[in-house]
Amino acid sequence: MSTTRQQPPWNQPQPHAESASRLPPLKIYNSLTRSKVPFVPLDPSGRKVTWYACGPTVYDDAHLGHARNYVSNDILRRIMRDYFNFDVQFIMNITDVDDKIISRGRQQHFFTEYVNSHPSIDDDVISTVRAAFAAYLEKKLPLLEAGLTPERYSDEVEKVYAAILNGGALDGSGKPGDDEAKIKMHIKTAASAANVLSTIATSKESILSETFYKNVQDVLLEHLDSLYGSSIRGEDRSIFTKLTKTYEDRFMKDIRDLNVLDPDAVTRVTEYMPEIVQFVERIVQHKFAYVTSDGSVYFDITAFEASGNSYARLEPWNRNDTKLQAEGEGALINRTTEKRSPADFALWKASKAGEPSWPSPWGDGRPGWHIECSAMASAKLGKQMDIHSGGIDLAFPHHDNELAQSEAYWHENCAHDHWVNYFLHMGHLSIQGSKMSKSLKNFTTIREALDKGDWTPRSLRIVFLLGGWKDGIEITEDLVKAGNAWEEKANNFFINARDSVAQTNSDAGSTDDTLATALKSAQDAVYQNLCDSFNTAGAMYAISELISKYNISNKSTLPVKDVQEAAVWVTSMVNIFGLNGSALPVIAEIGWSGIDIPDASKPYLYPLSTMRDSLREAARAKSGISEEAIKSIVEKGTAVVKQTLDVPEEAEVYKNLLSDFCTKISSLKQTDSVSKEILSLCDRVRDIDLFDLGIYLEDRDNQPALVRPVTRELIQAREEKAARAHQKQIERENKEKESLKRAERGKISHLDMFRTNEYSAWDDDGIPTKDAAGEEVTKSRSKKLKKDWERQKKAHEAWLASNRGNFS
């Protein structure tokens, strides 16, 4: 068997004569070469692209790490389809048969049954949970002494795992990684159970069963499975399909909420069992697999390589990594001595008690993880595909094994093409240096992140666009700020450009080609960057630079045609990147969702804004504003209020706001301060009344106020202003308190300040000469007392001066 650590040769696909001239100069970073190579589709016309993406294993909710994979995949797919105009056939699988699914399905099933049959926390329950706790420590935290009780757990774990708890590595050197993250998770899980078990043993008060089971669930799950798991019959798959159906539905909702396009087709393992069995049979017939005595089937790596094939095309340097191999085989794999090589992997797993099974020529069993994708992808796309994608953690062994067994299936006298021409791997999303993982429980689910408002589908996608697709991303404060800044910049551009186009009626005399030139440069830069292996970070920068050119331009000299073309193009690009919901990639409109005020508000807020503009202009005039002018302006607003009778419920708040504003202005008395009062009301309706409704009036010189939604930047500016005002108020109050303290201290006369029990003799000024024991005060002490006396003398004289009137 070859032990080379170099990737084997890869054959560059050649364009067909009929399509060569039409193909874009697109290069893609291909994991099969670890370099950027020209993209040439299999389709002779050069338009159709076949693409298979590894989907989720559905046993838990998707987290932000999954969002990274599926959103980035979606970005690349959209660019291929909507920018380069390829006809993409996109297939995604759902893994609904897997060791993790089997374990989780059984655990949830038995836990639910146990809780239902033990609604009260009695001695039997406590005994069972204590046994589960002991088993959990033995398996997950083996450095702790055997038989450690919950009562002693906290002290012992802090001693034994001090290095990890203090943020270090288990061996005391190097940086902590996933192993340390797992141990931290186990420590936390065990602590939760230990705390509730200790409490219930020492407290006379009962604990709610719901609280108890919530705290011990994670240690109890595996224990119950170890006791009863084998009782599940192989043909009874309902407890597993119930789990997978639930989490598939939740997964699809999550990625749709992130604006990820649905696949053109979804394949599920349970729906392809005959094809999988046939796939394994053919590999056995080709003598690249063998059957063991228990009815399992293993891939024969030695035979495969002896026939001139290459194993581990993606990561040959990892082919002897036993840890990765074990993870790829799953926790429920049969341990056998019949494997011809330790690296041989399961194509078909013989059934064990408690596992779902399907019939096969070798006996009842279930497919190995890797064979599932090979069989389903081949069933949908045939002997070759253009693109296969997935997370980088799948490269070895999953994708390497997929490639090997698929080439073994399609093998014909060693004269075969690559099964996959381009392998794309999305980089990890990291949190505190450790990749997000279901097994680590160090993740925030997609729905949690969206529900809490930490992220929006747009803000998350912008971060991924700025970070690129193939390299790992660590969410940092700087990266989040950069994403927010890009979004805010685009928001302002769309709002201002749309207003500029709406306000301008003619381009007569406009000769400034600054924006037209900047647009051409941006378009060229975006094309070059996207042809450079989908360099979205570079493309986003080019778009940002175009907006900057617009921002610093003299708007009065820019042709409206150029503004419109630039804004429409930027809109098209954000649509292509999936930043604007379901909007079509090429439209004549400007902007994305969120830059407009609610439709229900427009009949009232546009008149209010016009009325406010007129009031501000008149109030700021040197001559001031007359009573007649106020009346004339307000009448236009009240007319709007009166003419709308059947007001939709959602519009009531805006109608009332206009009405109240008219009433407050009308009620002002015609005094010297009326202009100032009007300006104050105009500020209030902008800064408070409308702002609290999510709408802002942006005042501009020599132009009407711009009516726009409140943005994150405006909210932040308001919060910072409020924080500064609050800080000033605190400082003012502290000054006043200090002044009061000084005043209180000044009440005491300097002649009396030292006449206390601490001393026994004083001079004529009241400065101590002897301490309480009659000893002479030292020179150094006397010197300090004299300074204190002088300070108090000044303070007392100041107090007397400030209160002289009170003594007359």
Describe it:
The protein has 808 residues and is of the alpha/beta class. Among the domains are: 20-99 and 248-443, Rossmann fold, CATH 3.40.50; 466-576, no CATH class; 599-710, no CATH class; 747-807, no CATH class. Helices cover 51% and strands 10% of the residues. It has a five-stranded parallel β-sheet with strand order 5-4-3-10-11, with helices on both faces. Strands 6-7-8-9 form a four-stranded antiparallel β-sheet. A three-stranded mixed β-sheet has the order 13-12-14, with helices on one face. The mean pLDDT is 92.
What can be said about this structure in brief?
This protein has 808 residues and is α/β, with parallel strands linked by helices.
Question: What is the element layout, followed by pairings?
Answer:
Layout: E1 27-30, E2 35-38, E3 48-53, H1 64-83, E4 87-94, H2 99-117, H3 123-140, H4 150-160, H5 162-165, H6 178-202, H7 209-228, H8 238-257, E5 265-268, H9 273-285, E6 289-291, E7 297-299, H10 301-306, H11 322-329, E8 346-350, E9 365-367, H12 369-381, E10 385-391, H13 395-409, E11 420-426, E12 429-431, E13 434-435, H14 446-452, H15 457-467, E14 473-474, H16 477-503, H17 514-531, H18 536-552, H19 560-576, H20 602-619, H21 627-643, H22 652-666, H23 674-690, E15 695-700, E16 703-709, H24 712-746, E17 759-762, E18 768-771, H25 779-802
Parallel strand pairs: 3-4, 3-10, 4-5, 10-11, 12-14
Antiparallel strand pairs: 1-2, 6-7, 7-8, 8-9, 12-13, 15-16, 17-18
Biased composition (Basic and acidic residues): 787-797
EC number: 6.1.1.16
Protein name: cysteine--tRNA ligase
